[in-house]
């Protein structure tokens, strides 16, 4: 049930290869191991879904970024003044240690930063990664994906 949902301001579509980022994030999830070096997430259950927000308002709309100018904030010339934001929310089932949950979150943050740091050098973008684990009220699954990876 490891679902990673990426919510982001639609203006990032012009500067971030979202399909590539989704694949990279899924691969990062599949590479996470627990304390016994076992995969944390099942291959057939790993999903990354990205949703752009076509309408958004972030902070002051870019006024502070434009006023700060190049060099003062570390953001290079060419910043259009419109902020971007990306929120990664990983929902994982119970039973994994705190260390494993943090390892998963760090892996996702590192992966996202690898793709976004270059863009963040020229634009003001916020990035948040959150890992949620909680009790399910109802949890049913039906899939033809899992049998592809559960062969013995």
Report on this model:
It is a single chain. The chain is an alpha/beta fold and 152 residues long. Helices cover 31% and strands 20% of the residues. It has four helices and four strands. The protein has a four-stranded mixed β-sheet, with helices on one face. α1 links the parallel β1 and β2. α1 packs antiparallel against α3. It is elongated and about 60 Å long.
Question: What's the shape?
Answer: elongated
Determine the mean pLDDT: 87
Low-confidence stretches: none
- Largest sheet composition: 4 strands, mixed
Layout: helices, strands, pairs:
Blueprint: E1 3-9, H1 18-31, E2 47-53, H2 63-68, E3 84-91, H3 98-120, E4 125-132, H4 146-149
Parallel strand pairs: 1-2, 3-4
Antiparallel strand pairs: 1-3
Q: What are the defining features of this structure?
A:
alpha/beta; four-stranded mixed β-sheet; 4 strands; about 150 residues; 4 helices
Describe the structure concisely for a colleague.
It is built from 4 helices and 4 strands, in the order βαβαβαβα. With 152 residues, the protein is α/β, with parallel strands linked by helices.
């Amino acid at each position: 049930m490891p679902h990673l949902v990426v919510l982001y301001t639609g203006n990032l579509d012009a500067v971030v290869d979202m399909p590539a980022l989704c694949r990279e994030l899924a691969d990062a999830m599949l590479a996470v191991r627990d304390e016994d070096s076992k995969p944390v997430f099942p291959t057939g259950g790993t999903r990354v879904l990205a949703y752009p927000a076509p309408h958004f308002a972030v902070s002051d709309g870019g006024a502070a970024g434009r006023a700060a100018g190049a060099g003062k904030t570390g953001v290079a010339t060419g910043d259009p003044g419109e902020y971007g934001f990306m929120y990664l929310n990983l929902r994982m089932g119970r039973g994994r240690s705190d260390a494993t949950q943090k390892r998963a979150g760090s892996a996702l943050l590192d992966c996202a930063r690898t793709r976004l740091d270059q863009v963040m050098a020229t634009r003001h973008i916020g990035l948040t990664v959150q890992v949620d684990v909680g009790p399910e009220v109802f949890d049913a699954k039906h899939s033809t994906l899992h049998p592809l990876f559960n062969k013995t």
